Amino acid sequence: MLEAIHLSKDYKNFRAVDDLSFTLNPGEIVGLLGPNGAGKTTAMRCMAGILRPTAGTVIINGHDILLDQAKAKTGLAYVPEVPSLYELLTVEEHLQFVAMCFNELENFKANADQLLERYHLLEKRRDLVATLSKGMRQKLAVACAFIHHANVLLFDEPIVGIDPAGVVEMKQEIMRAKQAGCAILISTHLLDTAEKLCDRVIILARGKMVAEGTIQQLQFSSHMEGESLEDIFLKLTNESVEAPPVFDI
Amino acid sequence: MNPLKPLLFLTYKTTFNGLKRAITTPKRLSYFIFFVLYYFWIINRVAFGAGTSNMNMPSQLVGKFQFPPLEVLDAIVFALFSFSYLIMLLATTNYQGTLRPADVDVLFPTPIPAKTVLAFRIARDYFFTLITPLFLALLGMRASKMGWEAIFRKMPHPEYSGIALRTITVSWILMAFCFVAVVHAVGLYVNRSDNKSDLKRNVLSWGIGLYVVGFVAFLITWFYLKPGLASAMDLAESPTLRTIFFLPLFATSITMAPFTGEFWPAVLGFVGMIAVIVLGLRLAFRQIGWYYDLAATKGYNMVKTRHMMRTGDQSGMMAERARAGKYKVRRFAWVYNLNMSGAKALIWKELVLQPRTILPLLIILFVCQVGVSALTALMGSTTVRSVAISGYFLIGMQSMMNMSLSMVVGQTGFLEVLRRVDLQKALPFTPDRIVRNELLGRSAVGIFSSWIGCLGFVILAPASWQFAAAAALLAPSVTLLLMATNFFVTILFPDIDDQTQRQFRGLMMLLGTVLALFFPGAIFIVLTVVKAGPILSGLAGSIAALGVTLVISSVAGAIYAGFNPSE
């Protein structure tokens, strides 16, 4: 469903993502982990077609994001870490705008009502986005991701800034999407969440993929059987920090 | 679905909701009404001459007006288009994207083709490029109406006057379109996030800069060697110049056609401009792969920076520069050695931060303040009358300079105070004390430069020492008073994102300054009139200013105590 092929992204003379390759399969949740500045958000933005990769590409549902952007994005939903939304649209208009972009206006009303109810935004439907709290904005961004029938979901820190009840709902929503056959990529700092939610994890450090696999595979490959994901993560990312710079232009 | 539909929906809804928001909240409605009335008053006065009595004068001159020789008119038109062309050139390397952060997060990941988004933005930018001169034309319509009538009535072929107006409009429309197309093409080429873009932009910027500076130097040399109208005509008709300035040449050919009756050059000019537009658009669309990338990395920051420039948020701008790695931290060792504990730490913080945010402005204002004092001293002679005039002039100028300084320091600084309210209110000081120390911290530079100015004045004009002493006495309290007024108005109208409130705040700032200075000013003037002497007048004025400052800062402190930035 989603395939990153030798994906690299440079900002001037700094390589933020370095030769990242992986596959995201239907009905699978993959966690993209890494310390601050590891390149998770840049990688996500490249996959969402916002940033142009310096090298490599991303294939979504068989369509190259560089060559056939519109078709590749049709099945894609992206929720940024701190979503910037259109402040002067109402909650409902925001959903409507996204539905229009994805040509999904059929049954919009019913879908919107369902999502607004699920995310406790029904009472706010006629309020401007500018008046929403941080958590509500996050919920609206997630609702926008589900207003069209995407089968590849990219979540950048999806549960940061949401209240505990919202976190539970968010996790349920992600599991529902997984059961519906969606391929889900979650970038997160929260290792316990990744451990419980993800089928597989990718660990990035300085833009490079330092490990990939299930928790068991990572335990085995790093000779840390029985250890938690947190310990494995710290060992792998510390090693990569001590290693020589990944890239110099 | 037509991909333009969501973009039109977005534009319509955000504009409509913005207007609705402006008129449905009583507070915002009052700003909106004030804003509209204020601009209506300006337009009404300037464009339609309400309240002016001398608007008949041009009609008397119409009869005397002689249509200039066509060569002269051609040279004037060419010069005007060349001027706008040079301005356009200087802006070529800037990224002109007007994309918002929400576009990056919401619009870009959707299947709307990037080409459609770019086309829509070009159309929008083009609309705004056209609308600004139209607005100015509306403002100047009445003032220039008689002149236009005279030109069209007395042109060689008056029957073509209707066409002349249309060709002028067409020239401007095409010129603006050329500008938008070229700027997008070049902007997308030199502002990318890749490795070579910085080099490309620097080369192009320097090239354009040298081209413009070289041309200005050439003009100066030309007119120095051959002054006069005939020389200007020679220059305007120079084939070399017209080849280099081919775009203004095209626009001039179109504009001049009804006057000269020569239509082939106009056709050629029209085709030439269309070719530039097509080429610019083609180049812009060929780089479409970079459009979102550029907006997400660079444009986003530029939009933020532009917004901060509009709101006068110097601290935010410097923070943005620091984030981009373009800011070198300045450290002044003497500030670190100051022993300022307790609430005085707020003053210390200001002494550290001010040079980091507005150092160039502070230097300019300092130089101006000292320079004005020195000039005032040199202006006076030894006669009693002259000494008094230059002395009072010094006091007036010092107050004016302090007002400018308080505007500059206050505008950027007090927004920062309100932004950091959660941090500062948690400190172990009363809100009153926080406000007072913030005012002191921001006034320090103004007081210091006033005193240096006064010292310079005494050195250059020792006979006027009493006036310098009066100015030195007035400087601290007047600076504090102006800062307090600035803070008071800022905390009353704290919304920097609301344009109407921003405009309203600016006007209130002026009104507040006048009202605040009224009482100390009146005391100073009365004592001066009764010949109490400059020092006594200055001292009394200073005490009065300090009293008003205390009142204003106490009220501001009370508002600050209850201020919640989330409301």
Task: Describe this entry's structure for a reader.
The complex is a heterodimer of chains A (249) and B (567). By secondary structure, chain A is α/β, with parallel strands linked by helices. Chain A has helices at 40-47, 69-74, 91-101, 108-118, 134-146, 164-179, 191-197, 215-221, 229-242; strands spanning 2-11, 14-24, 29-33, 55-60, 63-64, 76-79, 152-156, 183-188, 200-205, 208-213. In chain A, the strands form 2 sheets. Chain A has a 6-stranded mixed β-sheet, sandwiched between helices. In chain A, a hairpin with a 2-residue loop joins strand 9 and strand 10 (208-213). The longest helix of chain A has 16 residues, at 164-179. Chain B has helices at residues 4-24, 26-48, 57-62, 70-90, 101-107, 114-154, 161-190, 197-225, 229-236, 239-244, 246-260, 264-286, 291-311, 314-323, 333-336, 345-379, 384-419, 421-425, 431-460, 465-492, 499-529, 534-561. Chain B is mostly helical and 567 residues long. Chain B is built from 22 helices and no strands.
